[in-house]
Amino acid sequence: MSTTRATPAAPPGGPAGRPAGRGEPDRHRWRNRLHRFDMRYTPYLLVAPFFLLFLVFGLFPIIFNGVVALRHWRLDDPTLTGWAGAANFEKLLTDDDFWNALYNTFGIFLLSTVPQLTLALVIASVLNRRLRAQTWFRVGVLLPYVTPITASTLVFAVVFARDTGVANWVLSVLHLAGDEPIDWRSAKWSSWTVLATMVNWKWIGYNALLYLAAMQSIPRDIYEAAAVDGAGVWRQLWRITVPMIRPVVIFTVVLSTIGGLQLFTEPMLLEQNAQAATGGANGEWQTIAQLIYKVGWKDLNLGYAAAMSWGLFLIIVVVSALNALITNRLGGGKR
Amino acid sequence: MAGSGARWVRLVAASAAGVLLVAGCSGNSGGDSESGGGVTLKIAYWGDFGLDELKSRYEAANPNVKISLNTGEYNAQHEDLQKKLIAGDGAPDIAAIDEGFVIQFRGQADKFVNLLDSGAGQYESKYLPWKWKQSLTPDGKAQIGLGTDVGGLAMCYRTDLFQAAGLPTERDKVSALWSTWDQFIATGETYTRAMGKKFIDSGTNIFNPVLGQQAVGFYDPSEALLMEGGPKVAFEVAAKAIQADLSANLPAFQPEWNAAFVKGDFAVLACPAWMQGHIKNTAPDTAGKWDVAAVPGGGGNWGGSFLTIPKQGRHVDEAYKLLEWLIQPEQQIEIFKKVGNLPSQPALYQDPAIRDFTNPFFNNAPVGQIFSKTAEGLTPQYLGKKNGPTRVAVENVLNRMQNGDLKGKPLGQAWTEATKEAQKASTS
Predict the structure, then answer these.
(1) Can you tell me the distance from the alpha carbon of B110 to that of B99, in angstroms, rounded to the nearest whole number?
(2) Inter-chain contact B9–A161, Cβ cutoff 8 Å?
(3) Cβ(B291)–Cβ(B171) below 8 Å
(4) What is the DSSP string of A205-217?
(5) Smallest CA–CA separation between B298 and chain A, in Å?
(6) B34 — pLDDT class (breaks 50, 70, 90)
(7) What pLDDT score was predicted for residue A281?
(8) Contact list, A183 vs chain B (CB under 8 Å)
(9) Mutation target vs A (from B399, B417, B421; most A CBs, 10 A cutoff)
(10) Cα–Cα distance between A193 and A112 in angstroms, integer?
(11) I want to staple B246 with a disulfide (CB 3.0 to 4.6 A). Which of A111, B159, B199, B297 is the partner?
């Protein structure tokens, strides 16, 4: 077969013969090369768009922000430019507003993250049992997450209005209200509660679904064995479920740390005049993200705002790492 | 090298800011179709400038021009303009600027069309001299805006609530109740005792008019912060009103404040001319229940605006034509009748259309005469570059006295706090 094929019918070198004679090995080589290219380079091609976009919209702004943080740059005074060195960062250390915002951010963060993740865990373990209309409940728990954050926040702002709000009405019905309606925006504790409520409402369901997904992979017989050994529901939750879904718990803790420390939309919209960005008359609930917005776009001091966002970035890195470490320990990890 | 580096930084920054703006301020950018060689002129302002009907009239007279109106929140509009001036793109063809911000923008006169080059110098004699100077650069070479309205001051009050409290309701008798702010507070105490309701909307709306009556505001012309003069007087009056428990604690221009107009949660309100339009738009059902009396403590100014043309616009010539048309007496009078904004051209005060105008919404009060009189007898303050943020900082301290951590605290403590916050705002 091969000899008949190899034997040219037409004289060699004829214009028609050439492609017919060498076509097969050529195609093989081409295919080979394509294959090697595919194995070696296609993955890079496929991930390239993300990295290109990240370079343009992620890395570049971060680096540029670092440059700006080291410069004087005021929008209302174009003549004030040039290198500031560490001046912006030094100012940060002695700025009462920054420390107040940091305090608020952490307060709201604790008030929201701890109940949020605990409740999510409980809800997930309930949803993990056999329930009637299971899918309905599982979808329902995610609904707050789907609601646009601005819409839900505006509704909450109405609920917590001083004179006309539902929250004060409920308190008075329950005989928990004092002589005067609570002005939720006037003190730290009340405004933090309002903000934590908004954050919790939105994220409990989302975290619960993450936990639920992880719980599905825990074999049923472990629970059965534990039940036989006499472990109650709570004991099962803390001794079996949490350790077995530890990676997901760490993931949610890190995620809520990042989100909680960057809290912006809720505090902005709690302000009656959203533009003010002062977080209350005395900065009762001004978060760092809000302060950065105010310094940059209202005081028009971009250099200082950039320094602040670098400060926030460092704080988030440290706190996230700490949280991951602690969670890891709590969950019984040995790493 | 250093120069080119700085330029590079600024260029990148400006484009970055531009991207942010596109993301942050939807609505007013883009979407302006210029079919058939027509021109779309965008005007940005806040509240109600009475332009809705004028717009269609101008469009009918100039078929190639379309006008796009963009009204927003007061602070937001000024900040938006500032950002767009820096970014170098996106500013409206005509931007309104309030007197509280005009010094800040006057300092950037190179970013605005010099209206003197367009021939606006011919209008100088028509304006109140101080109004003309407010938007003129100190060297007198560039005029960035033409004045629209001035504030003037009066007190608006609810006749029905006054009657229920056993107070006089006729405007002259009401004016006679309070020639000083102390008498005003005493009247408020009578009202509050009789009705069990609050008298004023907010301490800040006492602070601002009293400050407007002082010779010197927050800053002197060398931009030094002077808290011990006018601001202290105004702060003490406002604090006294708060301590007498007259205030309904409603931050001005916010939803709850607007709702209180409808519910009648307060009985008096300091009224610059432009406030008339706000009351009318917010609580149309209270027509006829309001009246206008004199303000305690004599004349003063609160507010008043200018129309400017940012240089970056694509149709600066058409924009000037529209601006020139808007400040003509005919249009100014129509705006006054429609929303109450008092023109800043004193000759118009003698015009019967204004002199004899009574506002039916305000129980036919002769508002033309009332506001003309305060505007003419006025020596305005110098408002510094940081006037806006400083005012907000002090207002916040008053709000804290009303329902925050300073509630029930001695006046001295609040004043210390106010000076501290003002200092911070002046250097922010």
Answers:
(1) 19
(2) no
(3) yes
(4) HHHHHHHHHHHTT
(5) 30
(6) very low
(7) 86
(8) 249, 403
(9) B399
(10) 9
(11) B199
